[in-house]
Structure formats: structure tokens, C-alpha cells
Amino acid sequence: MGDRLTELLDATGVAYEIFECDPDLADTAQFCEAYGFSLGESANTIVVVGKSDPPTHAACIVLATTRLDVNKVVRTRLGVKKASFANAEATAALTGMEIGGVTPFGLPDDLAIWVDSRVMELPRIVLGGGDRSRKVLAAPEMLTAIGAEVVDELAKVVSPVVEP
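Given the sequence above, the corresponding C-alpha cells read:
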């Protein structure tokens, strides 16, 4: 997706940086720890599936400090009785990308992109770069530039774990 990613990002008109990383450190927590980013600025793109015939899908972008509300908000927005996270195989089949590198740029045109409103409050976010060897650093306005719909309460804040 290398040159294609650059073309897609350039088309938004929003400044960005492509950040190269070790593919073994692409998962959010490991990436943040290894490269000095905070979980609060890391925005994960998660593919969800609505259990219907045929199945419906959406890509949801939420901060790593939150948890996607699949059982209420996503399910309701998809118009289905049951929804879940797409597994790695389904995500790859739908997006052409591996977990740890999924980006909202270059997704199929018929795939809805929803972004939690908390993401839009930040000056800069870290997103997947289309594969596990890079990330995209940019202002969140880049997401609305590609047509992502901002959704209030798409995710819930995760209470921090207090260690004894």
C-alpha cells in the first residue's frame, strides 16, 4: 500500500507524517511503549460485522484508552440484532490489511467509517498505516476529509486498572 497510502493521504490536504516501525511492535500497547507515544493519542481502526444475511460491516476508529461499544451503538447503527469484532481473517479479506496495521485510508467505498467524537478532540493522532511496518501521524481532521462520520459515544472510556 506504500505509494497508494501516500496518494490517499495527500488527497486529504491535511499534513501528515508516515512513521516507520518494527512490525513486531505494531500492536498498540507495544508500539506506544517502544516509540514513546501515549495510548491516549493512538486511534485504532476496528472492523465490525453485523450478523445479518448478508453480513454488514463498518470500520470504527476509537482511542486506545476507550472500548468500542459494539453491543449497543455499533449494533444499532448497523441495524442488526447482533454485532461483533471481525476476526483477523475477515478483516484481512475485507480490507486487505492485517490487524495492527489497519488504516481507514483506502478502505472499500461501501464500508462505513465511524469515528468516536473523542478522537476529533485531539491535536494529533496515531493511526495504522496499512501494514504492520508503519503508522500515520496526523490531525484527526484527516478522518472527516475522507468522509468518516463522527459519532458521539461510539466508545466508552476504559477505567484504568489500579494495581495493589
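The chain has a mean pLDDT of 94. Try to locate this feature in the C-alpha cell string yourself.
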